[in-house]
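testing teh design pipeline on a random one, pls ignore if ur not involved
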C-alpha cells in the first residue's frame, strides 16, 4: 500500500514534469510527411494466403453492413460511402494531374477501414493483371474465383440498365463496346451474389445487384511488354498520360470487368475497383522507385479537366466524409504519413 503510494506519487511527479515537455500527442505523430509507425506491405491477391483472402472478402462484406459515418449523404453503408465520395468527385479527380495522388489516398482510406473497422489483419491487396495467363480467358483468373475470389461474370438477362434518355447519368460504353453486352447481368456466384448496392449506375441512385460483363476487350494492355512500356516513360507527364489514356492501362481493367466497373462515376460498386486501382498505384510506385531522386516528387497535369495549368505539390485534395484534406505532396512518398504503405 505504502509502496504503491510512493509509486503513484513518483508517477504524478513524472507526468507533471516530463510529459508536457517530451511527449507529443498521438495526433502529432501522424503529421503528413513524417515517418509511419506501421507500414502496410501490400501484396498481390494471389500472394495472400487462402485464409487472408477469405478474411479480406469478409471484411468487404462487413464494410457493406456498417452504417455510413456521415448519414447526411446518399450512401446507405460504409462501403457505399467510399463509392459515394468517388461519384461526387469524379469530374474533379479524373483526367487531371492529381488523378494518381487522389486514388492513392482513397485506396489507403479504404484499406484502413477494412483493417480498423472490419478486423482485416492481412496486407492491403491489389491486382497485377500481368499474372493472369494470357492464353486463358480472363475469367480463369483467381480474382474471379467463386470460393476464394470475388465471384465471376454477370449472368445474361438478369439486369436491365435504367433508361437515361438525356444522358444525364454518365452511363456510356467504352468506344467499340455495346452497352447491353457490357452491362451483361448480375453476378450470381461467389461472395457478392446477393449484394444490393444503392448508388449507381452512373449518377443515379437505384437499388441493384453487382453488375459485370467480363470480357477480353483490353487484355492486350496487360501483357508484360505493354506494362513495361508504361513504366519506360521518362517524365511524369508522359507516364500519367499513358496511364489515363482511354482505354489504356487504367480504362482497360474497368472495361474488362464490365458492368458497373465501366462507369466512371459508380465503378466503386464493385470491390474489384480497389484491386484494380491498387494495381495502377503500384505501377506509379514502381515508376517512382526506379529513380526516386527525380521521380518521387514529380507531378504535373491540369488542376481541372481540360485546364491549361499544372497541379503543384501544394494542391489540396479532399475526401468528404472519409478523411481530412491533404495535399498532393502528402501522397507522393507512400511510405510516409498519411499513407504508410509499400509494395512487396
Ligand atoms: C454521355 O455523357 C458522357 C459524360 O457524362 C459523355 O462522355 C458521353 O459522350 C455522352 N454520350 C452521349 C451519347 O452523348
Ligand atoms: C505543365 O507541365 C508540363 C510537363 O512538365 C509542361 O510541358 C507544360 O509546359 C506545363 N504547363 C504550364 C502551363 O506550365
Ligand atoms: C477541403 O477541400 C475542399 C476542396 O478543395 C474545400 O472546399 C474545403 O473547404 C476544404 N476543407 C477544409 C477543412 O479545408
Ligand atoms: Cu476513379
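output:
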Amino acid at each position: 500500500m505504502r509502496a504503491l503510494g510512493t509509486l503513484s506519487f513518483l508517477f504524478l511527479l513524472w507526468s507533471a514534469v516530463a510529459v508536457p515537455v517530451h511527449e507529443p500527442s498521438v495526433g502529432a505523430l501522424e503529421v503528413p510527411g513524417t515517418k509511419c509507425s506501421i507500414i502496410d506491405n501490400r501484396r498481390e491477391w494471389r500472394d495472400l494466403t487462402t485464409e487472408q483472402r477469405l478474411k479480406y472478402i469478409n471484411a468487404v462484406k462487413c464494410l457493406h453492413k456498417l452504417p455510413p459515418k456521415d448519414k447526411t449523404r446518399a450512401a446507405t453503408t460504409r462501403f457505399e460511402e467510399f463509392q459515394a465520395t468517388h461519384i461526387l468527385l469524379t469530374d474533379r479527380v479524373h483526367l487531371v494531374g492529381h488523378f494518381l495522388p487522389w486514388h492513392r489516398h482513397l485506396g489507403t482510406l479504404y484499406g484502413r477501414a477494412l483493417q480498423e473497422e472490419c478486423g482485416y489483419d492481412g496486407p492491403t491487396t491489389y491486382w497485377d493483371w500481368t499474372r493472369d495467363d494470357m492464353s486463358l480467358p480472363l475469367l480463369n483468373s483467381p480474382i474471379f474465383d467463386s470460393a476464394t475470389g470475388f465471384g465471376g461474370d454477370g449472368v445474361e438477362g438478369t439486369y436491365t440498365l435504367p433508361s437515361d434518355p438525356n444522358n444525364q447519368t454518365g452511363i456510356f460504353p467504352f468506344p467499340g463496346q455495346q452497352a447491353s453486352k457490357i452491362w451483361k447481368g448480375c453476378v450470381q456466384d461467389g461472395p457478392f451474389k446477393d449484394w444490393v448496392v444503392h448508388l449507381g449506375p452512373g449518377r443515379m441512385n437505384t437499388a441493384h445487384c453487382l453488375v459485370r460483363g467480363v470480357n477480353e476487350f483490353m487484355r492486350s494492355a496487360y501483357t508484360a511488354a505493354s506494362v513495361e512500356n508504361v513504366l519506360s516513360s521518362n517524365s511524369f507527364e508522359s507516364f500519367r498520360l499513358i496511364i489515363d489514356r482511354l482505354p489504356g492501362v487504367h480504362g482497360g481493367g474497368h472495361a474488362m470487368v464490365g458492368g458497373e466497373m465501366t462507369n466512371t462515376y459508380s465503378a466503386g460498386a464493385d470491390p474489384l475497383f480497389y484491386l484494380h486501382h491498387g494495381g495502377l498505384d503500384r505501377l506509379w510506385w514502381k515508376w517512382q522507385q526506379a529513380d526516386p531522386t527525380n521521380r518521387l516528387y514529380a507531378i504535373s497535369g491540369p488542376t481541372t479537366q481540360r485546364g491549361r495549368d499544372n497541379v503543384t505539390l501544394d494542391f489540396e485534395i479532399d475526401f468528404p466524409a472519409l478523411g481530412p484534406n491533404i495535399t498532393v505532396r502528402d501522397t507522393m512518398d507512400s511510405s510516409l504519413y498519411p499513407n504508410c504503405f509499400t509494395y512487396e
